Amino acid sequence: HHSCRVLVIGGGAGGCAVAAKLTKVLKKNEVIILDPSEKHFYQPLFTLIGGGIYGLEKSFKFQKDVLPEDAKWIQDKVQQLSPKSNEVITAGGDTIKYDFLLLALGLETNYEKIPGLLEALQTDSGVCSNYSDKYVEKTFKVMKNFDSGNAIFTYPDSPVKCPGAPQKICYLTEDYLRKNGKRDKANIIYNSSLPVIFGVKKYADALWKVVEGRNIEVNLRTNLIEVKPDKKEAIFENLDKPGEKKVYEFSMLHVTPPMSTPAVLRTNKELSNSTGFADVNPDSLQHVNFPNVFAIGDCSSSPNSKTAAAAAAQSVVVFKNLMDEMNGRKVTKKYDGYASCPLVTGYNKCILAEFDYKLQPLETFPIDQDKEMISMYLMKKLFMPPLYWNLMMKGYWNGPAVMRKILHLGFK
Ligand code: FAD
Ligand code: UQ1
Q1: Which residue lies with its CA nearest to atom 11 of ligand 1?
Q2: 321-367, pLDDT tens digit by residue?
Q3: What is the ipTM of this complex?
Q4: Which candidate, 288, 286, 291, places its Cα nearest to that of 319?
Q5: Which of 7, 9, 18, 35 is the best mutation target for the ligand 1 pocket, counting ligand atoms within 8 Å of the beta carbon and taking the most?
Q6: Homologous superfamily of 2-107+262-335 in CATH?
Q7: What does the domain layout of the chain look like in residue ranges?
Q8: Cα-atom radius of gyration of the chain, to the nearest Å?
Q9: Which CATH class is domain 109-259?
């Protein structure tokens, strides 16, 4: 049995970033991090691994080498949350008491919700998915083996992490097939449950030009409901016309699975809202009913786009507000909803989308970022991984807000 000043549940992008900040001001072992996984994945690299640019080994480090030294890591899962008594119970049967709690459990992938999908992923069927460390390396194998026919990319009817990623791999595949002389034998199809290609108009306009210029078919409100690996068929429903289905044959099928917060949070009615996300104030990221509870990252109800970039911008808000709450001061720091999504559109180009709660562009660089640029591609590929490991995971990266202000001096 343990007790601590701050319990951080989930030592991923958001949890580790805040824990690193907390350990700089609290005493050794006053912070406990509860996380079962041996490996810490830098998931934004999965897009490039799927595209064959890197191997899986580039995307992770061991959690023991990532989590802050002055925090105590308990390698276990949370099984029960009891916010009224300020304690949790772990799967291993430990009780952990806390003064303050940070929920940072991320989003789970629910491959099993689509009949036939797990079997298809585990066999030689042309079905792949960048959204799991188990399957991400299969994507490039499927790309290489493609000869002709339909290459289909899906976006599910649920919230997802990195809402751009389902189409990034579509663009990489299109570019790969073009470079390898197979493009004219391929129909490239992006079937998305959403009513738009992207939620921010400026970038949606740019992406429509990309898909039109490269002859990619886009079907909106089209949701994958079943995969038949033996027949190589994918079944989609029309979300606007209940009951209307369409069967596609495929040679390649890249699936973005439905996602949800982990059941332990989703089913806890004291902590989560009706959609299963930790119910926080979108400005302060403090829980609406329990002032000693905060949330960060993909499991938070704050209505921003779920990205590591958003978690970075949130980390400083959560840290400051948690310290203010701890010291009996007024909680004042506000999160503006900043998120960013490097929309990789080919092997050397990328549109860097950056925006806020209002879905208005909030761009770091004093240039119009709705253009495909090699510089943004190189930033995503070469600059972001070390920034994540060496700055964000050490508590020194709060997103690009300061950089943006400096770069815009004299421009506005
Ligand atoms: P995570 O980093 O997922 O961490 C959650 C942690 O909680 C994990 O360590 C897990 O082990 C732990 N956990 C889960 N259940 C329990 C439990 N019961 N008890 C204890 N611990 C638990 N973001 C970008 O900014 N840019 C990108 O280009 C980008 N591309 C992406 C591409 C792909 C294919 C994917 C999958 C994601 C991408 N993202 C990108 C999104 C980014 O990875 C996430 O938004 C980010 O990791 C969220 O951080 P988090 O801390 O909320 O969750
Ligand atoms: C970012 O801060 C971040 O989190 C570490 C990402 O996740 C990997 C990103 O993809 C991006 C683009 C940012 C924003 C950073 C800059 C310099 C614009």
Answers
A1: 37
A2: 999 999 999 999 999 999 999 999 999 999 999 999 999 999 999 99
A3: 0.99
A4: 286
A5: 35
A6: FAD/NAD(P)-binding domain (3.50.50.60)
A7: 2-107+262-335, 109-259, 339-385+401-408
A8: 21
A9: alpha beta
